[in-house]
Amino acid sequence: GVGMNLQDHLEVYVQQRCLQPVTLYGLLRPDRTLSAGLQWLLRFTGPCATAHMDTGGFARSEPSVAHPDVQFHFLPAQVIDHGRVDPTMEAFQAHVGSLRPTSVGWLKLRSANPTDPPVIQPNYLST
């Protein structure tokens, strides 16, 4: 039925403070944001010319797995609440997640009111 068989890729994020100014944190300054935007707009270069998730890899969780089932990726920035909160410091972030989760969840309407949030049961670790 509608809302059943919800599957998602659960990830773990690890953040590490960086003591050198080599991450994307400096781009939060308005002058640097403008400069980066102009670099991309005029020459398609600079920090806006990449998604910044271009470092990563795949691995098998155990030798008996036929194909990689774990993904790693790295970001030269701190991401808080899916980007809704500005970072507070120079930091790196590493992600690791399952590629083929078997857990199944569901979502349902809370009420007939379309402004009410749904009820979500992801069951991330049920299998």
What's the structural blueprint in terms of helices and strands?
Blueprint lengths: L3 E3 L4 E7 L12 H14 L11 E5 L10 E6 L15 E8 L6 E4 L10 E3 L6
Antiparallel strand pairs: 1-6, 2-5, 3-4, 4-5, 6-7
GO molecular function: choline dehydrogenase activity; flavin adenine dinucleotide binding
Protein name: Glucose-methanol-choline oxidoreductase N-terminal domain-containing protein
InterPro entries: GMC_OxRdtase
Question: Care to give the gist of this entry?
Answer:
With 127 residues, this protein is mostly beta strands.
Q: CATH H-level name... which superfamily? A: Glucose Oxidase, domain 3
Helix percentage = 10-25%
What is the C-level CATH assignment? Answer: Alpha Beta
Q: How many E-type strands?
A: 7
**How many helix segments?**
1
Mean pLDDT, to the nearest integer, reads: 92
Strand content: 25-35%
By secondary-structure content and strand pairing, the structural class works out as mainly beta
State the domain count: 1
Q: So what's the overall shape?
A: extended
Main sheet strand line-up: 2-5-4-3
CATH architecture: 2-Layer Sandwich
The CATH topology label is: Glucose Oxidase, domain 3
* Uncertain runs: none
Q: How would you spell out the order of helices and strands? A: EEHEEEEE
The biggest sheet, with number of strands, parallel, antiparallel or mixed sense and barrel status, is: 4 strands, antiparallel
GO molecular function, one term: choline dehydrogenase activity
Protein name: Glucose-methanol-choline oxidoreductase N-terminal domain-containing protein
Organism: Petromyzon marinus
GO cellular component, one term: mitochondrial inner membrane
